[in-house]
Each structure stands twice: as structure tokens, then as C-alpha cells.
Backbone:
């Protein structure tokens, strides 16, 4: 990495981070007044991630994407892509930068209608002057082969199906070999079969090392990505919450994000002691914890290991009473937790019946498991 | 106001630039036609009225000296209502202290206040003309650089100088109207004549017939009878001229020129209508969504049609509001300019009803016709197309997964590019975009090309016509190749003049020419017309005639001559070898025509016969009044310098020299009047070019507007500002260059057409067309500049668009 | 929310689609967006049509509004006690019929930008001729009052927020007092609070007896319809009534 600009973020985070957004605020003004679409977004994306950004219409997800692509200016905040502060450039420099570093895929494909598919794919190379002039047709053809369009290469966009147009748009996005692909509802205008094909294509590209950021509101698409970022009314929902409690509405997730308390617990430390009262609900952001039935000596029984996106403490909060098992951090490393107070948890169970139902099911299954473990353990003691 | 009319009003007001474009396209056409139609009516009325008001002579006779008694006889001649005598002679004049002599026609009248025929119009405070005072034609002031109140010096034939007081200026609307070459006039009373060493006699008769003043046949009959009588009484008649009272001699010419301008005006209307059609269809296109919404909430075709009809009529009304008063003023200004140039008075500013009607008709009908198809198409558009076409721009009507077929032109373009590719030729894609964008809106392209091509073709043609006319004038110059001409008051021997002339450094050769006046007679003995016979030495190098038929002169030709092609107007069947009956010095003789040559104007009947014969015939063997000198160089300044030198030399040596003048000056008047005509044509050409580039600018901004989204895409995939601007300008230039090629091709027939019409109007004969690269080159440069300018603004707007604006779907 | 009216066999349904098929034909082949959809809508229903983009829900709506033409099948709408075969009307009759019978609302509001709010609301009355000019202004102001925008009546659409624009669009849809309101993703481009307000407005309209058809892809809205149907790849998947 070059060091012309002072590092904007601590080195630890930079290791593999390709996109960093810091405190992004976007306010639109018109005669009707101001409207803040993005309310301070912090987001780091790692190299090679296949990320989906999910949100309802009006949630600000397209604006967020525009911030990332340098298409729109943030009102405040900073976007650093591959160590380049993209809003320190002029609009024209940014165009060139974008051409070389981002491949953009639009909902409505946006191929230029007067150029054949092949020519469309060559165009970015012409604009940013990458690859020798004579090599460009061959490279473009290879890309079209990659997306299975070599036979349509010389047709105009309007003469092929919309799915094919989107495939060609992806080939175009790849033509300058940009490390990042950005896609705004790439399947939004396709039937389900064509959409499936496009997602397969993204999957393959992600495996080849591209960083892919995709905006969508289709849950079937988010399942295929390695990470999902939810945006709701201009704020990012804590990913841990989204993972742990997927049935919450985005609005509730966002409210919850504000209520939780972040904690880091060092290795081997016990978070919950068996038989002690519990007054918090914990969700794991990173690291792992062990659920342990402690023996008298060192013969503890580990009944479960919980990782990111999982939670604990719910049994005690719902059923009252004391902890039935201890929970402690694994020796491998610290764990980051989100803690929710009892009152907030109860409020949550009240406002989201779906989550409450799901929670009940989980509690039942966990209790079941606990009981069998406990029995096993007892049996061992008496032997 | 009801919402729909409110919307029409907003459409009119909100996009000021577009409104201005449409209104000015309509106004340009209305204005052009209004100016010309108005001027046409004013000029053709007032020119003849003004001419008639000056009581023009129906008959002018140039003859030898006569007195008041003789004039009385003429006045009493049967068929003559009134007659006046004047003495007209040439004399050189300069202001006191001036160095440059100017040749003037001095006109002596009996009583300046009492002129009844060919009345003069006083300019400014022109008082009574007394003895030893002079009043001049207003053109003279500039030429001699004098003011009223100054003293002018007149050079007498013996070299002495006489001073006269300049007491006023006049304009002569009647005399010598059709003679391009006549010098301007100065007026004195008969009583001043002795001071100028001139006899107190008349040498011209100006007569008005008592009936049939507009009947040429009658006038000719009276003229012939009068001339007979004059000659029978022992006087010699040099020439006679005829004119109708109520028809200005140049009316036909002026009307023909106005007719050409009118044709160009109509063309401009055509061009502007294609501009209107273009803009309106783009407007309707931009309004598709509005139309869709209105139809969705219940609007029917008829209502939409009505709304846009109202919009167009508002455009028309605005255009008329601007163009009609402007057109009226313009018409009057043009008429005044013409009147000024041609010395007639206008009857004052007025609104010409017919021009008004034409303007209103054009202002209303042209936009309606031009806008009809776009409006009909716009109002018939279906809601689905109107709404989806806008919401999912670019994917058009296949939002649900279908695909359109490529058009034939698109396939052709693709194949062509592929073919080039196979041969290893790649067109960079950004250029390819410009190329293909050019042909995307083919209807719009066609209309744009039409206007720009027409503008260009006319522009180029005007240059060609200008060169053609100048070439023709130069060709006339072939009959006056001398660098200096000398006119003496008495004949001198050839050898004597040649010997003296040879002493002036710079003189190369000298020729003595003879002249004769002849009447051409019809077989029945009546006079057909007058004709001047010029008699250069047969071997003369100073005439290089353009022969239409036959041969040029031989030294031993007797009673043989070459005549100008104007003779064919009188004798259409005349062939080389035929005889003409000429009356020279009251003798009727048959002359054989050996050649017919081309010469300007049908009224200028001219013939050449060898000096060798004519001089003998006139008992002037080896002598001549006129000498033509060839000098070492032939440019105008040198000629003027030599004329001064030769003039001084001969006068110093006691010759009675009337005038030495530079050869090319003969053509001055002709060139000047043609240049006015060319200037008019050029203004019209520039107007068409303006309409054309307005069309291009409109087209380019519509194109950019429609392609806003595509431009956003280009920027999203890496195109920088420069690239976007280059793309738009390349397209504009491409359109410009295509129109240049088409215009260049079209200019060929246009040149022929325009040259023929103009030369028929001015010279009454078609002339040989000459092409010059000037017009082609200037138009090429101009069209490139215009198209860059026309697309620069849209391009800049395009480059300014941020991608977000572009991609923000509602 | 008013309960869904019991389907009565004596009254013909307000809107009826019979085997509606829509096929788009193009060079790349034909594409069937609606594969024989049959459905009936009773007066007073608040019907949700759910589906992903591209599922055919907008096409379905276009068939009912007569904006697009069926490839085969029938669309019948009861209008003033008369059964109108929408698919048989020509463009002009459709325009007038639609203006008087349907209020149409879009995701993107589609107000005319050069007209003030009150004029936008007056426009359908002006074009359909059901109200006299003076009457129509009075009525437009009342409708704006209903959507709580009377203070902005003389502003242009660009000077109010998106949610306010959509409320104006609703007022415009009500201008000719049509029995049916058709809305295509009316909350699609609004933030959630604004969307809620708009939805409340729709519910109030149902209470006043309007029949509303709404296309959406937001499953969160499901419980608020009196009945909803899902459409996927051009076919109705389920049809459920909410209690």
C-alpha cells in the first residue's frame, strides 16, 4: 500500500479492508426541506467478500451504493477504496478511477443501445485506456464467452433478451479487470431463471477473488452472499442482530441496534455462571463461547459451542430463574458480544410475535439438549 | 384558468430556450418573406410612381446644335405634348485645391426653376440656379469631395480653368436610368455656357408625347416621325431613346431581383418549418409522460390534440408579434435603400396589406403544417407507451423480457464495422458511438441535414454566382481592354498622337478608333433601333470578343460588321452572312453581318467594323477622336497614374484633350451595382445558414437531452468530461460535414439556377457559369465552426451532468 | 379495517378477469407475462397483489386499467350498473372510461410538474367534464384538505416532499370520485413512516366504500389488506383473505 496519504484508519483494520466508509451522512435538500437519507454510516468491506446490501425502497440503499461508487457526494464522511479517498478527486478524475477500479452493474442493464454487445464490453477499456488497442476485441470476446454470450457478440442490446443484456453488462463491468463489482438490483428486472443465472455468475466471480457488492431486496439472493448488510431508514442494522434475529422487521432491528451494549470479553473468562441470576440477553458478534456444565474438578462438559450470530441468555430471561449452565469464552480468543437488558428483551418479545415464537422453539430445543447432557453428566458422576 | 390551458401556458413559459428557438424559427421565415413581399410591393409601386412623377421624357434625341426656334418647332410637332431642350457635354471638374479630376456630364437648362420634363428632386436647401453657379447630382459631392457652398473648378478644352459656385444638390430620377456607364451630372443655366466656352445652343431634345405615353409602339412612331423631320431640316441626329411614362426603365430588373430574393425567402420558410417540425416532435417526445398521465386520468386524443394545437398557435402568435412589425420596418428599410440607390422617392412608410396577409398566413400555417404530424402522433400515443417509454428508458417497450429486431440500417452499420475489424481496422468505440448516434434519429437527422444543406448550397452558390457575374463583367471588359482612353475635342492624326504618346514613359501601344452612329432599319424602312459602331483597327489587340457565331473583323472588310447578340432580340432569325440595313449619315446601306458576339444587356446594341473602312467612310482617314493606350501594367492604380500623366502631357503639348481616363473605371458602376445584388444574396445565404445552424443546435441539444441517461452510463464506466464533450461535438461535426458534402453537390444545380435567373434579370441573357473554390472552402470552415458551436453548449451541459442526476430513476 | 364483504352471488363482481393472457412477442421469441389469470374483485375490497419484480403484477394491473391490451381473455368492470368489457374499448373510450371509473396511483407519483397541486387535482375533472370549472376547483381544494395539503394547494409538486406528492396523487385519483382506486407500488419510493401514513390513507378510503387494488412487493403489508393474492411468473399462486 502506498503511504502518500496518511493512513485514515488503524492498520489492523486495513489489513484486508478494500472499502471503508466512515461517518457517511447524506442529506438532500429541496424546497420542501431537508431529508437525511444516510445517517452516519460506518462500514468496512473485506477483499473478496460477496456482500449483499438489503433494504426496503426508500431505506437509502441505492444512495449508499452511490456513495461507494463515487456517483454521489456524501454531505459529510469519507469513503476510502483501496487506500484512495475517492471524494478528494474531481468528478472527472473519479470517472477515470471508477472505470479502472469498479465494475458497475445496473438494474436496467444500461448497455449503450447503439453499440453491439462486444463493443459495449470494449468501451470501458477505450475510456480508461487499459490494454493495448488491438488486444481489446479479443479480451472482450473472452469475457463474453465467460458469460456465455459469444454467439450474440455482434448483436445490438435490444436484439437479445434482458437476461442476456444483464450478462453482457456484467462482462462490461469486468472488462477493465476492476477488483470490485458493484451491482444495483442486478436481478430486479429479470425473471427467476435469468436471475438465477446472474447470481451463479456472481458466485463464480467471487470465488475468483472479486469483491462484489450487490443491492437487492430479494431474500433469495441474499442467501447466496457471504455477508448481508441491512439498511433501514438511513442506518445500518447491526449485522449480529440481523443474523441472530432474522425475523425482526428492519425497523425493529434498527431500534434494537441502538439499545444493545457492546462488550469484549477476554479468552477463558466466564460470562454466565451456572446457578447465578442472569439479566442480559447476549448475541455473539465475533469469537466463540462454550456452554459448559461444570464438574467438580476439571471435567467440565461442553454441551455447545456458539459462534457469531448466535445468542444465549434467552432461556433465563424468558423463564426467569437462574442460569442452567455456564457460558465462557473459548481459549482461542476474545469474544465480542451485544448485550440486551431484560426490559428491552421483554419489549422485543412483545413487539415481534414472530421472533417470540421462534425464540420459544429455540428455547425448547436447547432445554431438551441441556437435559440430555445433564443426565449424561449425572450418570457419569454416579458411575 | 383550467388546468389544461394552464399546462399549455407553462409549456410555453417554462422552457424559455425552446420557446425562443421555435418562435425565432417561425419568425425568421415570416420576417424574410414579410420584408421581401413588403419591399416588392412598395418598390414596384413607388419606383414607377416616382418615375412618372418626374414627368420623364418619352423621347430623348441626341443631335447637333439647335436653338429655341427649332425647339418651338418640335414642341408644335404633331403628337408631342411638350418638349425641352438642353445642352449636355462632358467636362472635367474638381474642387478647389483638389488634384483628382472627375468627368461630369454638364447639363445646361434654360430655366432651372421651370423644368417640366425629367424633373429633378432638390436635396436639402437648393436655391435658384443663377449665372455662373452650378447644382450637382448628389453623387458628385463624394466624387469631387465638395460641399454645397464650395467652388468647383471646370477644365475647359484649351486647358484653362473656370470656377463656378456650387449652390445645391439634386437627384435625377429619370435621365439615363438604364445606362450603367453614364457619368453623374452637373446643372447650369444656358447663360453660364459662354463662360465654359460652349455655344448657347441645345443639343438634346426631351419630349413627352401627348397620348399613349405607355405605348412603346406609339412612342416609337412619334419618335421616328420627329427624327425624320429633324433630319429633313438639316440637322444630324446621333441617337434616340424611348421610355414609357409609368414604367421605370429598371422595373423589370429590380422586380426580377426581388423575385429571386422572394424565392430565397420562401426557401427560408421551408427550412424554418423543418426546424419547427424537429423541435415540436422533440417536445412531444419529452411530453410523452405528461400525455400518458393525462390520458390515464381521462384525456382523449382530441383534447391532447387541442392542447398542443393551442401551444403551436401560441408560438405562432408570439412569432407574428415579433416578425410582423419587424418585417414592416425591414420592408420599408429595404425599399428606402433601393430607392436611394436608384434615385426615386418613396411615398412614405406604410403597411402593405398583402405582405401582412402573407406573413400571418405563413406564421400560422407553416407551424401548423410542420407540427401536424408530431402532434397527431403525440396525441395518439398509448398510455402504456407513454408511461413505460419514460420510466424504463433505454429498454423501451420490452420491459417484460422481450427483444426488438435490429433495423436494417443498424445491421448494416454493425456489418460494416465487423468487416473493417476483419481487415484489422478498428474504430475506437467512443468515435463509433458518435457515428452511430448520428444516424439514430433518422427523421430528425434528415430535417437537420435538409436545412443545413440548403443553407450551405445557397451559400456556396452565391459565391459562385458572384464570381460568375464578375467574370462576365470582366468579359465585357474584353471589349474595353485599353489601360487609358483619350478623347479629343477634334480629330488628330494617328501618327502624331502615337509619336507624342510614345514619349510618355510606360506607354506600350496606341490605337486610334473611329465611331459611327447607325440606325437599324426594318425591311419596311422604319427604324428598329439605334446602334453604335465602334471601329478599332482590325488587328486591334484591345478587343477580345466572345464570338457566338461567325468571325471577327478583317482589315479589308467593307460594309461588314460584327454585332452584339442583342441584335437577335430585333431579328431573331439573323444569321452570319445576312445583311442588315443601316442608316448612317442619312444614307441607307446594306451591311453584311460577319460575326455575332456576346455583350452585356439587350439595350446595348453594339457593332464593330474595321477602322480602316469606317475612317474612310467618315473622311477621317488616318485621323481619330479617340485613342486607346496600352501601358506596361494593367492594374487600376497604375492606370490612374498613367491617365494623369498622359492627360498632362497632351494638354501641355497643346492638344485639345477632353478626357483621359483609366480603362477599368468603365466597369466601376457595373461592378458596384452587381456587388449590391451579391450582398443581398449573401445576406439571404447567411440567413439560411443561420436557420441551418439553429436547426443543428436544436437537434444536438435534443439529442443530448434524450441521451442523458446514456451519458451517465458512459461516465459511470470511466468516460471523463472531455470524452463526453468530444462525443457530442464529433456528432455535430459529422452532421455538419455530411451537410457540407450534400450542400457542395447541391450547390452545382443551385449555382446554375441562380446564375441564370440573375443574369436573365440583369443582363437579359444567360451567362456562362464559373465555379470558385472560395465558397466551398468558406462554407466548409463555417459549417465546422457552426457545428462545433452548435454542439458545444449541449456538450458542455452533457459533461456537467452528474451521474446521480442521470441514473436517479424517479 | 372493514371486513371483506361476503361474496354475494346475486351481485356480479365489480371487476372480473377471465383467463387473461398477455404475451409479448419479439425477435428473441415470445414471452408470456400473464398465463391465464382469472380473478374477481368485489366492491369494497382492499386487494393486495404481491409478487417480485417481473412476476407480472404490473401487467395484471395494466390489463384492468386498460393501459395494455390482452392477448386473450376478458376484463369486465361494472360501471354505473353496466358491465363494461374493458378489453373491447378503443383508446379514446378507454381514456374517458378510465378517467371516470378508476383512480390510478403510481410509485413515482406522476404529477405534472408545471401545474400547482390544486391544478393537478383539477386536471381529471377538466378532462372528463364531470364537474364545472368552478365546482372542480372547490372539489380539488376539499380533496387536498382531506389529504391535509390544503396549505400547499398553490405550490408546484417539486416544492413538496415525496410523501406529500403521493398524497396529492391520491387526491387526484379521487377527483372524479371513481369507485375503484388502482395503485402500483404507491409506497415503493417512500421511507417507512411516510409509507405508513399513505397506507393509513388508503385504509380510510376503503372505509368510505372505495375498492382498492394495490400492487406491492412488500410482504410486510400483507396483513393490512382485506385480501391478497400472490403472483409469480405470470400465474396466481395463492389467494387468501385476511380475517
Residues:
Amino acid at each position: 500500500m502506498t503511504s502518500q496519504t496518511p493512513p485514515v484508519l488503524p492498520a489492523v483494520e486495513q489489513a484486508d479492508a478494500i472499502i471503508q466508509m466512515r461517518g457517511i451522512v447524506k442529506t438532500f435538500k429541496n424546497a420542501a426541506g431537508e431529508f437525511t437519507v444516510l445517517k452516519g454510516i460506518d462500514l468496512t468491506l473485506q477483499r473478496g467478500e460477496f456482500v449483499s446490501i438489503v433494504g426496503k425502497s426508500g431505506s437509502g440503499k441505492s444512495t449508499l451504493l452511490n456513495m461507494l461508487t463515487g456517483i454521489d457526494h456524501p454531505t459529510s464522511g469519507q469513503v476510502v477504496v483501496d487506500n484512495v479517498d475517492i471524494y478528494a478527486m474531481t468528478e472527472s478524475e473519479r470517472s477515470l478511477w471508477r472505470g479502472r477500479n469498479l465494475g458497475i452493474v445496473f438494474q436496467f442493464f444500461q448497455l449503450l443501445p447503439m453499440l453491439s454487445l462486444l463493443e459495449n464490453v470494449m468501451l470501458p477499456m477505450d475510456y480508461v485506456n487499459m490494454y493495448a488497442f488491438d488486444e481489446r476485441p479479443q479480451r472482450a470476446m473472452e469475457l463474453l464467452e465467460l458469460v456465455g454470450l459469444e454467439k450474440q457478440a455482434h448483436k445490438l442490446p435490444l436484439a437479445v433478451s434482458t437476461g442476456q443484456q444483464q450478462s453482457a453488462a456484467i462482462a462490461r463491468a469486468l472488462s477493465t479487470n476492476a477488483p470490485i463489482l458493484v451491482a444495483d438490483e442486478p436481478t430486479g428486472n429479470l425473471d427467476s431463471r435469468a436471475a438465477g443465472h446472474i447470481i451463479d455468475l456472481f458466485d463464480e466471480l467471487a470465488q475468483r477473488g472479486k469483491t462484489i457488492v450487490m443491492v437487492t431486496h430479494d431474500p433469495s439472493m441474499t442467501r447466496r452472499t457471504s455477508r448481508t448488510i441491512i439498511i433501514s431508514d438511513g442506518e445500518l442494522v447491526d449485522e449480529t442482530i440481523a443474523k441472530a434475529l432474522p425475523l425482526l422487521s428492519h425497523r425493529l432491528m434498527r431500534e434494537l441496534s441502538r439499545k444493545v451494549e457492546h462488550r469484549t470479553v477476554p479468552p477463558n473468562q466466564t460470562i454466565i455462571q451456572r446457578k447465578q441470576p442472569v439479566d442480559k440477553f447476549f448475541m455473539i458478534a465475533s469469537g466463540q463461547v462454550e456452554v459448559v456444565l461444570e464438574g467438580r474438578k476439571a471435567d467440565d462438559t461442553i454441551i455447545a459451542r456458539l459462534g457469531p450470530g448466535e445468542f444465549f441468555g434467552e432461556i433465563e430471561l424468558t423463564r426467569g430463574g437462574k442460569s442452567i449452565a455456564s457460558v465462557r469464552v473459548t481459549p482461542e480468543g476474545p469474544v465480542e458480544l451485544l448485550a440486551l437488558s431484560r426490559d428491552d428483551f421483554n419489549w422485543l418479545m412483545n413487539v415481534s410475535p414472530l421472533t417470540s415464537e421462534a425464540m420459544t422453539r429455540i428455547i425448547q430445543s436447547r432445554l431438551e439438549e441441556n437435559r440430555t447432557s445433564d443426565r449424561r453428566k449425572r450418570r457419569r458422576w454416579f458411575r | 384558468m383550467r388546468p389544461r390551458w394552464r399546462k399549455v401556458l407553462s409549456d410555453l413559459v417554462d422552457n424559455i430556450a425552446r420557446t425562443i428557438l421555435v418562435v425565432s424559427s417561425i419568425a425568421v421565415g415570416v420576417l424574410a418573406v414579410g420584408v421581401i413581399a413588403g419591399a416588392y410591393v412598395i418598390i414596384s409601386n413607388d419606383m414607377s410612381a416616382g418615375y412618372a412623377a418626374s414627368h420623364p421624357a418619352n423621347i430623348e434625341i441626341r443631335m447637333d446644335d439647335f436653338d429655341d426656334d427649332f425647339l418651338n418647332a418640335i414642341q408644335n410637332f404633331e403628337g408631342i405634348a411638350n418638349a425641352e431642350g438642353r445642352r449636355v457635354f462632358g467636362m472635367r471638374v474638381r474642387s478647389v485645391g483638389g488634384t483628382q479630376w472627375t468627368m461630369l456630364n454638364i447639363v445646361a437648362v434654360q430655366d432651372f426653376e421651370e423644368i417640366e420634363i425629367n424633373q429633378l428632386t432638390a436635396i436639402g436647401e437648393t436655391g435658384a440656379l443663377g449665372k455662373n453657379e452650378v447644382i450637382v447630382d448628389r453623387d458628385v459631392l463624394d466624387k469631387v469631395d465638395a460641399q454645397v457652398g464650395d467652388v468647383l473648378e471646370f477644365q475647359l478644352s484649351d486647358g484653362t480653368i473656370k470656377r463656378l459656385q456650387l449652390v445645391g444638390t439634386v437627384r435625377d430620377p429619370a435621365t439615363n436610368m438604364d445606362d450603367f456607364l453614364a457619368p453623374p451630372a452637373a446643372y447650369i443655366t444656358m447663360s453660364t455656357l459662354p463662360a465654359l466656352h460652349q455655344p448657347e445652343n441645345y443639343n438634346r431634345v426631351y419630349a413627352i408625347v401627348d397620348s399613349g405615353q405607355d405605348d412603346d409602339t406609339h412612342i416609337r412612331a412619334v419618335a421616328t416621325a420627329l427624327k425624320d423631320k429633324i433630319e429633313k431640316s438639316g440637322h444630324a441626329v446621333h441617337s434616340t431613346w424611348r421610355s414609357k411614362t409609368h414604367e421605370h426603365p429598371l422595373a423589370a430588373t429590380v422586380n426580377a431581383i426581388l423575385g429571386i430574393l422572394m424565392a430565397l425567402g420562401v426557401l427560408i420558410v421551408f427550412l424554418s418549418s423543418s426546424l419547427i417540425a424537429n423541435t415540436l416532435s422533440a417536445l412531444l417526445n419529452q411530453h410523452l409522460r405528461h400525455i400518458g398521465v393525462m390520458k390515464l386520468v381521462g384525456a382523449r386524443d382530441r383534447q391532447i390534440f387541442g392542447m398542443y394545437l393551442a401551444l403551436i398557435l401560441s408560438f405562432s402568435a408570439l412569432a407574428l408579434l415579433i416578425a410582423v412589425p419587424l418585417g414592416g420596418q425591414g420592408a420599408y428599410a429595404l425599399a428606402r435603400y433601393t430607392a436611394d440607390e436608384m434615385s426615386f422617392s418613396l411615398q412614405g412608410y406604410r403597411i402593405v396589406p398583402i405582405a401582412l396577409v402573407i406573413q400571418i398566413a405563413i406564421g400560422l400555417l407553416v407551424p401548423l403544417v410542420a407540427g401536424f404530424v408530431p402532434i397527431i402522433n403525440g396525441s395518439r400515443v398509448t398510455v402504456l407507451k407513454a408511461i413505460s417509454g419514460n420510466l424504463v428508458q433505454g429498454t423501451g417497450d420490452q420491459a417484460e423480457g422481450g427483444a426488438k429486431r435490429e433495423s436494417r440500417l443498424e445491421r448494416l452499420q454493425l456489418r460494416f464495422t465487423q468487416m473493417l475489424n476483419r481487415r484489422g481496422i478498428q474504430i475506437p468505440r467512443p468515435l463509433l458511438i458518435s457515428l452511430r448516434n448520428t444516424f439514430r434519429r433518422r427523421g430528425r437527422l434528415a430535417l437537420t441535414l435538409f436545412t443545413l444543406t440548403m443553407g450551405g448550397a445557397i451559400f456556396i452558390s452565391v459565391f459562385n454566382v458572384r464570381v460568375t457575374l464578375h467574370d462576365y463583367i470582366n468579359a465585357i471588359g474584353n471589349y474595353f481592354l485599353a489601360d487609358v482612353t483619350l478623347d479629343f475635342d477634334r480629330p488628330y492624326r494617328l501618327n502624331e498622337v502615337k509619336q507624342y504618346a510614345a514619349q510618355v514613359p510606360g506607354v506600350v501601344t496606341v490605337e486610334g478608333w473611329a465611331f459611327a452612329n447607325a440606325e437599324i432599319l426594318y425591311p419596311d424602312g422604319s427604324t428598329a433601333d439605334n446602334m453604335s459602331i465602334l471601329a478599332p483597327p482590325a488587328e486591334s489587340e484591345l478587343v477580345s470578343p466572345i464570338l457566338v457565331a461567325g468571325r471577327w473583323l478583317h482589315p479589308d472588310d467593307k460594309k461588314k460588321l460584327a454585332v452584339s447578340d442583342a441584335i437577335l432580340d430585333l431579328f431573331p432569325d439573323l444569321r452570319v452572312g445576312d445583311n442588315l440595313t443601316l442608316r448612317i449619315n442619312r444614307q441607307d446601306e446594306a451591311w453584311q453581318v460577319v460575326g455575332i458576339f456576346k455583350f452585356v444587356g439587350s439595350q446595348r446594341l453594339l457593332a464593330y467594323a474595321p477602322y480602316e473602312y469606317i475612317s474612310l467612310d467618315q473622311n477621317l482617314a488616318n485621323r481619330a477622336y479617340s485613342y486607346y493606350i496600352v501601358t506596361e501594367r494593367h492594374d487600376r492604380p497604375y492606370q490612374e497614374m498613367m491617365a494623369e500623366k498622359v492627360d498632362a502631357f497632351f494638354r501641355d503639348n497643346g492638344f485639345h484633350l477632353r478626357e483621359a481616363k483609366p480603362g477599368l473605371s468603365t466597369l466601376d458602376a457595373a461592378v458596384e451595382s452587381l456587388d449590391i445584388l451579391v450582398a443581398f444574396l449573401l445576406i439571404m445565404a447567411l440567413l439560411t445558414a443561420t436557420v441551418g445552424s439553429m436547426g443543428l443546435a436544436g437537434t444536438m441539444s435534443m439529442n443530448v437531452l434524450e441521451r442523458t441517461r446514456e451519458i451517465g452510463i458512459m461516465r459511470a464506466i470511466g468516460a471523463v468530461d472531455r470524452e463526453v464533450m468530444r462525443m457530442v461535438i464529433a456528432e455535430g461535426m459529422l452532421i455538419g460535414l455530411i451537410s457540407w458534402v450534400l450542400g457542395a453537390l447541391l450547390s452545382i444545380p443551385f449555382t446554375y439556377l441562380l446564375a441564370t435567373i440573375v443574369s436573365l434579370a440583369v443582363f437579359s441573357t444567360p451567362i456562362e457559369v464559373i465555379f470558385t473554390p472560395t465558397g466551398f472552402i468558406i462554407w466548409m470552415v463555417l459549417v465546422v465552426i457552426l457545428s462545433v458551436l452548435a454542439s458545444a453548449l449541449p456538450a458542455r451541459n452533457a459533461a456537467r451532468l452528474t451521474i446521480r442526476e442521470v441514473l436517479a430513476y424517479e | 379495517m372493514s371486513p371483506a364483504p361476503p361474496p354475494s352471488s346475486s351481485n356480479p363482481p365489480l371487476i372480473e378477469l377471465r383467463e387473461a393472457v398477455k404475451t409479448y412477442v419479439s425477435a428473441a421469441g415470445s414471452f408470456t407475462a400473464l398465463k391465464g389469470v382469472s380473478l374477481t374483485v368485489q366492491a369494497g375490497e382492499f386487494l393486495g397483489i404481491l409478487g417480485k419484480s417481473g412476476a407480472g403484477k404490473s401487467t395484471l394491473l395494466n390489463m384492468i386499467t386498460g393501459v395494455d391490451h390482452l392477448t386473450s381473455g376478458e376484463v369486465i368492470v361494472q360501471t354505473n350498473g353496466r358491465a363494461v368489457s374493458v378489453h373491447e374499448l378503443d383508446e379514446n373510450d378507454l381514456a374517458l372510461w378510465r378517467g371516470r371509473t378508476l383512480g390510478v396511483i403510481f410509485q413515482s407519483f406522476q404529477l405534472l410538474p408545471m401545474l400547482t397541486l390544486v391544478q393537478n387535482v383539477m386536471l381529471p375533472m377538466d378532462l372528463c367534464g364531470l364537474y364545472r370549472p368552478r365546482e372542480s376547483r372547490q372539489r380539488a381544494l376539499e380533496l387536498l384538505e382531506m389529504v391535509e395539503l390544503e396549505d400547499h394547494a398553490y405550490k408546484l409538486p417539486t416544492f413538496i416532499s415525496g410523501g406529500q406528492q403521493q398524497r396529492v396523487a391520491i387526491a387526484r385519483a379521487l377527483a372524479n370520485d371513481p369507485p375503484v382506486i388502482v395503485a402500483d407500488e404507491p409506497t415503493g419510493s417512500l421511507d417507512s413512516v411516510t409509507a405508513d401514513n399513505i397506507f393509513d390513507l388508503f385504509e380510510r378510503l376503503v372505509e368510505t366504500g372505495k375498492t382498492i387494488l394495490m400492487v406491492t412487493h412488500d410482504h410486510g403489508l400483507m396483513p393490512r389488506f382485506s385480501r391478497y393474492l400472490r403472483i409469480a411468473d405470470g400465474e396466481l399462486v395463492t389467494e387468501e383473505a385476511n380475517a
